[in-house]
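Hi support team,

I've been running sequence recovery on a batch of backbones for a student project. Most finish fine, but this one hangs at about 90% for roughly twenty minutes before it completes. I'm not sure whether the input is malformed or the queue is just slow. I've pasted the structure tokens below so you can try to reproduce it. Let me know if you need the job ID as well.

Thanks,
M.K.
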């Protein structure tokens, strides 16, 4: 039986990204909150209920909550908020729950639950296809998933924002800039030069890792290459990805919940 309305919560290092799914699996509301390890259960509960109400959604209609986290310190507070403010014990995507994947990591417990959620969504969107998923978050992660649902592993690199912060903090005169594509690699100002270096440096890394991963994991047979995460839209027209799907981790959480309700 499918839940009527499900709140899915992705707890990342920089932001908490959430969405509400209806009974057909369609996401109708998305919202973000800056991540803080010091936020209390009451603050989280009030935030979630307020955002739902302000967007014209009755919080009482939520009957399931699913979450994944790369910030262990935040899980307890959000778990308590779900119980206190929604009277729901949330489903947590973690080791031991059903995922539909065969994890080929040497130590499966090391795989971040957000990466697993991305892979779950990919195998549902593209059944019987090899996939590479690139997730643009605080870190930029790469996942290789086979057509027979084996999670092979991947690569982890510093994200775009980390790169910008490193330049700002470790140099005397380089400013913080908006992370965007300037359309040119030869910047005519310090700001443009930083933006060009961040964007095209990242794009070059993506092409190299995707190319090597295709050869290594799929014997050069081209997989479906997907982009997701906060900065994924920057690369919409880069010619690297078959699809840019910003909600992939939330979709994976929703499918994991359904699998564990069976």
């Amino acid at each position: 039986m499918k839940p009527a309305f499900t709140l899915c919560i992705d707890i990342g290092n920089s932001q908490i990204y959430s969405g509400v799914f209806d009974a057909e699996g369609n996401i109708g509301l998305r919202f973000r909150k800056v991540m803080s390890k010091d936020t209390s259960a009451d603050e989280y509960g009030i935030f979630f209920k307020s955002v739902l109400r302000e967007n014209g959604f009755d919080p009482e209609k939520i009957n399931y909550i699913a979450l994944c986290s790369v910030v262990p310190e935040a899980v307890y507070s959000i778990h308590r908020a779900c119980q206190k403010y929604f009277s729901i014990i949330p489903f947590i995507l973690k080791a031991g729950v059903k995922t539909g994947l065969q994890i080929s990591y040497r130590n499966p417990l090391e795989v971040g639950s957000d990466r697993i959620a991305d892979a779950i969504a990919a195998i549902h969107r593209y059944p019987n296809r090899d996939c590479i998923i690139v997730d643009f978050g605080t870190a930029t992660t790469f996942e290789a998933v086979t057509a027979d649902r084996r999670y092979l592993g991947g690569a982890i690199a510093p994200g775009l924002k980390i790169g910008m912060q490193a330049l700002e903090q470790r140099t005397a005169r380089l400013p913080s800039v908006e992370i965007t594509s300037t359309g040119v690699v030869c910047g005519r100002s310090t700001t443009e030069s930083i933006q060009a270096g961040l964007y095209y440096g990242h794009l070059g890394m993506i092409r190299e890792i995707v190319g090597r991963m295709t050869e290594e994991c799929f014997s050069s047979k081209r997989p479906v290459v997907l982009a997701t995460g906060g900065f994924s839209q920057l690369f919409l027209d880069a010619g690297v990805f078959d699809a840019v799907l910003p909600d992939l981790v939330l979709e994976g959480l929703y499918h994991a919940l359904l699998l564990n309700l069976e």
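--
Follow-up from support: It reproduced on our side and the slowdown came from queue contention, not your input. The helical segments are 41-54, 72-86, 113-125, 160-170, 190-218, 248-261. No action needed from you.
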